[in-house]
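I am writing to request your help with a piece of structural work I have in hand. I set the record out below, with my sincere thanks for your time.
___
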Amino acid sequence: MDMSDHCNHSIAVTGATGWIGAALVAALAEHGRPVRPLARSGMSVAGVPVTLIEDIGPQTRWEAVLRGVDTVVHAAARVHVPVSRNAEGEARAAFDRVNADGSARLAAEAARLGVRRLVYLSSVKVHGESTPRDAPARADPAPSLPMPDDPYGRSKWRAERALADVATRTGLEVVVIRPPLVYGPGVGANFQRLVRWVERGRPLPLARVDNRRSLVALDNLVDLILRCIDHPAAPGGTFLVSDGEDVSTPELVRRIARAAGVPARLWPVPVGMLSGAARLFGRADQAARLLENLQVDISATRERLGWHPVVSMATALEATVSPRGRMDRP
């Protein structure tokens, strides 16, 4: 990508010490772009000093850290709320404060301070937890979409609507990206646990699962963000992103095993039995991510931005399971 026309425009990245934010800061620095990592703590990212910010919310003061900034990539978000199972109202308020109200405040202040463009990292959860088979989520408007299922997804959808309102009122160029599950070197959480399980040769009762899920490699997501920072057709767009190939859960396990050089140990258990057991033990949400479909259609992203995935799933999985790609593993 030719970035020479924009090389003097400073780019601020919120959530810069997070996994995705740090990868983006490193890519921008590698391209010679003036980048300003913003985070609540930390010394530096990819050799670039971190600019400290307050907790993100409806009263955050942004003037000092956005002075001289041309573009903001808003990658910071609240993704977990430690509340009881019955406290959905508490969870909704906590998510909304950071993800919806905090993003609206950032956009309004960015527009006031002369920022040209804001690229917002939203989530596929705006579309809910699953999609019908071979009916992938699309970013173009439809009466039935979006329909987020949980407080986090709803907070991201509220943020998208708030940013659109700021763009209409101020002329701020807003770009929205909705990634599905992101994986790559250093990935944590559920994907890391799945990789560990496969590497250790432990059997998984998933052989009968026949779903389709979209994933996106970290390198592909970062490349799309870079495209959205500069592309003239990006403003006003909402872009879905993936590796361009959807896989079933057992096929993903086989690919992880192949990348790790170990056999895939899958054994057949009826999907209904797996779902029932998951509900019984209070793990229906986790089971849904393994058993149900969640596909996205990236054709509009390809056409409007001329973008395509820069790494294949096979290459990205090899990097993820290699010793360099691992986090600390016993």
User: Anything to note?
Assistant: Residues 185 and 324 are 7 Å apart (CA to CA). The chain has eleven helices and eleven strands. Residues 1-7, 325-330 have pLDDT under 50 and may be disordered.
